[in-house]
Amino acid sequence: MTSIINILEKMGQTTAFEKERKKLSLDSEMLELPLEVQQALNHGNVEQLNQILQVRAQVVCGLHPAEDPDQEDKEKDDEEDEDNKHQKLAQLKSAGDKLRHAG
Amino acid sequence: MQHGRLVCVGTGMTLGAHISPLSRRYIEQADVVFVLVADGISEQWIESMNADVRSLQPFYQEGKSRLQSYKEMVKVMLAEVQAGKNVVGAFYGHPGVFAWVPHKAIAIAREQGYQAHMEPGISAEDCLYADLGIDPGTYGCQHYEASQFMFYQCTINPSAYLVLWQIGVAGDKSLTRFSTGISYRKLLLEALQVHYPLDHSVILYEAIGLPLQKARIDCVLLKDLPVSEFSLKTTLVIPPALSMQPNREMLKRLAMLNEQN
């Protein structure tokens, strides 16, 4: 099956000028492949090629989040810092109240 | 400097056609290659270049936050760098264009004292300019990730091109979907029709992934956007709707400057 990949790679490197001069289906390397592969290549049948090469058909390709995760993490940290600050203040206030009552 | 190194390379958009000789050499010489490309055949093509190629695809799962997937991708690449290996991340297109993972992995690797850098590739944006015959220098060109365009109040210039990426998942705040439906696109249309007439012609574009494919270049009216077909690879290109408006005040001041000098 490596030869299919090789042929695809060569197709990717074939200029339009070369394509005009000779049909790729006449390429000797391609003629050595099973008929179903030749047909899939000639007709651009990607689904069939996926099956022949047994590659994953479902591929996800998004790589970019709409919102900056670093900014979100920072905002979350800031919120947590703010919560911690309020908690500490509440603890200090409670300790102060207790001392006053004890006094 | 620590042992271990990270290089994120671009494989380009079209199998065999776009990868740079240098990026290919990095893939061939790496101890381990992590790959994320846009189709299974291209993944197998990268596998043919190195004995240890590991796909990042399994980190994606419908219903799982893509952000979580991205973070796991960064982590798994860095673990090999920390183990002292020469690691290559091979990403389709350009590894630094609309791609959080390579940027993040390189930044963390550097923070931790490892050598890390990026090698550019031919991006979908590059293909778009060639296939559509657009020069971003003619009227200017704005690019947004489609959801970002919806979430934030972006200042749009309708005299310039507007390109919205990842339109197939536009509006997905959860980052857990692989597609969003008509109702999401209706909201996108609402946001766009503030700046563009409904009968404005727009282009749905997909670059060539395999050399036996053709680029998708479908012209539709803006109002038909909600019912148009989208995949994760589709990009929306909106040509200018207004001619460029001269900045008369600035031109007057520049003329005065020219007279003085």
Short description:
Chain A has helices at residues 2-12, 16-21, 28-31, 35-43, 46-53, 69-102. Chain A contains 6 helices and no strands.
Task: Note down, in words, how this protein is organized.
The complex is a heterodimer of chains A (103) and B (261). With 103 residues, chain A is an all-alpha fold. Chain A has two domains: 2-53, no CATH class; 68-103. Helix content of chain A is 70%, strand content 0%. The model of chain A has no long low-confidence stretch (mean pLDDT 78). Chain B is an alpha/beta fold and 261 residues long. Chain B folds into two domains: 5-122, 3-Layer(aba) Sandwich (Cobalt-precorrin-4 Transmethylase, domain 1); 125-238, Methyltransferase, Cobalt-precorrin-4 Transmethylase, Domain 2 (2-Layer Sandwich), CATH 3.30.950. Chain B contains nine helices and ten strands. Chain B has helices spanning 21-29, 40-47, 66-82, 100-111, 124-132, 136-139, 146-151, 182-192, 248-260; strands at 5-10, 32-36, 53-55, 86-91, 115-119, 141-145, 161-165, 201-206, 216-221, 235-238. In chain B, the strands form two sheets. Chain B has a five-stranded parallel β-sheet with strand order 3-2-4-1-5, sandwiched between helices. Chain B has a five-stranded mixed β-sheet with strand order 6-7-10-8-9. In chain B, α2 links the parallel β2 (32-36) and β3. In chain B, α3 packs parallel to α4. The longest helix of chain B has 17 residues, at 66-82. Chain B starts with a strand and ends with a helix. The model of chain B has no long low-confidence stretch (mean pLDDT 95). The chains are: A mainly alpha (103), B alpha/beta (261). The interface between A and B is large, with 29 and 49 residues. Chain B: One of its GO terms (molecular function) is methyltransferase activity. Chain B: InterPro entries: 4pyrrol_Mease, 4pyrrol_Methylase_sf, 4pyrrole_Mease_sub1. Chain B: Residues 5-214 form the Tetrapyrrole methylase domain.
